[in-house]
Design a protein that fits this description.
heterodimer, A: 309 residues, mainly alpha, MetI-like fold, two-stranded antiparallel ribbon, 72% helix, B: mainly alpha
Chain lengths: 309, 284
């Protein structure tokens, strides 16, 4: 009895010791900054001078700031379209890649390639593709198709779209980009699909299930925990989009239609040196993520199927 | 087992053909931008902006690469990137493995609560931490060095802890018991029993962390002030400015040079990578 007690104590001590790096990391690089940001958000603070307490003024200003609504709206717009669309693309690709056709290794690499391109070359590449004059989207697609339709069907379609300079299109370029770089999610879905027990499919086949019925009755329910995980990570990630937009659309051009919430935080903090204001924006973002994650969990709660439970 | 009838076979052939067709079309859509990048990187400045565009460049300007790599301090950026990547990847793999071992296989009071809090930290967005972290690193005198980029990696993080814990839990506990009877300490079990069996998940975490560091833009943008400290991700943007919007061919050559190592790395590790993720069984 006492020997097992000693063993348990020893194990607990080892456990805490092994977890120590994370306790330090959690307190120093996460807990402290999170609380410090909360404190900063109630101060006027330029980093050059010590913070001065000003109560809720930052938050009051924030809710009267047009650019706050504009940038938050842009971010939510991009997230609203990119989360479902990139989920469908990633899941669809993973299902295609899970069939027994030859050359899987090649297809797998091809679909994952875009996710490997670092953000800056990616942004530069897309600037080039969607360039209003020389980009291949215009020269190879919009112009020939538009010209042909206008000549033969007497339509009045544009033969040139200024994707990057027209605020009606700029945001959709960001959404398209997220669909193209969905490789990480695809790989995780693929791994999840490989865990679905084969006998279930065989049973479905014997019952004469169609491909669609098999997907609906076997694949999707068994994959639902993975889908939930990926969707929640996608929501959290998409609200933090920064690099591509920052490189492709300096200052959120055109007319701040691509000025994302993260860009506004970055500019407030490091261009305008309004650290308190930026911290308030950061906390609002944190609360929005908590809210949306919670909503997603609630939504999935009734739908997710756990094995054996 | 009855042999499949002819019509069933034909039906199957049709299905496989359709899948191939769809996969090929999708592959083209996914590859065109990258092929376009490589094609442009090998063109003369005039041909790069020619309409309609030429897919196979003629003449082939291989010299673009040398010009692109030498007109900006590309090799300095590459060296800096490799230093940061090496320190970050080592720290990430090591620290997360140690912590995940504790969460997966050692019992201590409060462990489940601590794990729930750990998972919840994935919801904390970086922008909210950005200002206090910058302030803290400035106080440490770390701004302008690589330290803010790699030191935090040595203190674990929620996503990787989660991934590794899932994997470690799947390793039979009898192995640990046997090693304990042979007089192994917890550290000994971790190093000699668990780590050798955990190679797939270690590879996944290493690769994820390598790609994230190689591509990281915001971190270097915040903490690296002088050009001789820049990494590729941020150096390339400067390149974009210097080349001034028009030299697309050089820009694409530099971009290809940055992308190529990552693609080669993935190509050689992709099987291990996907197996590794499958083996963690993300299911909870």
């Amino acid at each position: 009895m006492s020997e097992t007690n000693i063993r348990a104590k020893k194990e607990a001590r080892a456990g805490l010791l092994f977890a120590l790096p994370w306790f330090i990391g959690f307190s120093v690089f996460l807990g402290y900054p999170l609380l410090k940001a909360l404190y900063n958000s109630f101060t006027d603070y330029s980093i050059l001078n010590p913070p001065v307490f000003i109560g809720a003024k930052n938050y009051i200003d924030l809710f009267q700031d047009k650019l706050f609504y504009q940038s938050l709206g842009n971010t939510l717009y991009v997230a609203f379209f990119s989360v479902p669309l990139s989920t469908v693309v990633a899941l669809g690709l993973a299902m295609l890649l899970n069939t027994k056709v030859k050359g899987q290794a090649f297809y797998r690499t091809f679909f994952f390639l875009p996710a490997l391109v670092p953000a800056v070359p990616l942004a530069i590449l897309w600037l080039w593709l969607f360039n209003g004059e020389q980009g291949i989207i215009n020269t190879m697609m919009i112009e020939p198709i538009g010209t042909w339709l206008n000549a033969n069907l007497h339509t009045h379609l544009p033969t040139n779209i200024n994707f990057l300079g027209d605020k009606a299109y700029a945001k959709s370029v960001l959404v398209l980009m997220s669909m193209w770089t969905t490789g990480h999610a695809m790989v995780i879905y693929l791994a999840g699909l490989q865990e679905v027990p084969k006998p279930l499919y065989e049973a479905a086949d014997i019952d004469g299930a169609s491909a669609w019925q098999r997907t609906k009755m076997v694949t999707l329910p068994l994959l639902s925990p993975v889908i939930m995980f990926n969707v929640i990570m996608a929501i959290i990630g998409s609200l933090q989009y920064f690099t591509q937009a920052y490189v492709m659309f300096p200052g959120g051009a055109p007319e701040q239609s691509t000025y994302l919430y993260t860009m506004y935080i970055f500019d407030s903090a490091f261009r305008d040196l309004r650290m308190g204001y930026a911290s308030a924006m950061g906390w609002v973002m944190f609360l929005i993520i908590l809210l949306l994650t919670n909503a997603a969990l609630k939504f999935f709660d009734s739908k997710v199927h756990y094995e054996g439970g | 087992m009855a042999k499949p009838t002819r019509s069933l076979k034909a039906q199957n052939l049709f299905a496989v053909g359709t899948i191939h067709f769809v996969l090929v079309i999708l592959s083209i859509i996914f590859l065109i931008p990258l092929l376009w990048m490589i094609s442009t990187s090998l063109k003369t400045a005039d041909k790069a902006v020619q309409i309609p565009p030429e897919w196979i460049p003629n003449p082939l300007e291989k010299g673009n690469y040398w010009e692109a790599l030498t007109s900006a301090p590309f090799f300095v950026y590459a060296r800096n990137t490799l230093i940061v990547c090496l320190l970050t990847v080592t720290g990430t793999v090591f620290s997360n493995a140690v912590v995940a071992y504790s969460f997966a296989r050692l019992k201590w009071p409060g462990r489940e609560t601590a794990f729930k809090i750990t998972i919840a930290t994935m919801m904390v967005p970086f922008p909210v931490l950005m200002v206090p972290l910058f302030e803290m690193f400035a106080n440490f005198g770390w701004v302008g060095t690589f330290r803010p980029l790699w030191i935090p990696a040595w203190f674990a993080g929620a996503f990787n802890i989660f991934l590794m814990r899932q994997f470690f839990r799947g390793i039979p506990f009898e192995l640990s018991e046997a090693a304990k009877i042979d007089g192994c300490s917890e550290w000994g079990i971790f190093v000699r029993v668990i780590l050798p069996l955990a190679k797939p998940v270690l590879a996944v975490v290493a690769l994820f962390s390598f790609m994230a560091t190689w591509n990281d833009f915001l971190g270097p943008l915040l903490y690296l002030g002088s050009q001789d400290m820049f990494t590729l991700a941020i150096g390339l943007r400067d390149y974009h400015g210097q080349a001034g919007g028009t030299k697309w061919n050089l820009m694409m050559a530099a971009s290809t040079a940055v992308v190529a190592p990552v693609i080669v790395l993935f190509f050689f590790t992709q099987r291990l990578f996907i197996q590794g993720i499958a083996a963690t069984g993300l299911k909870g």
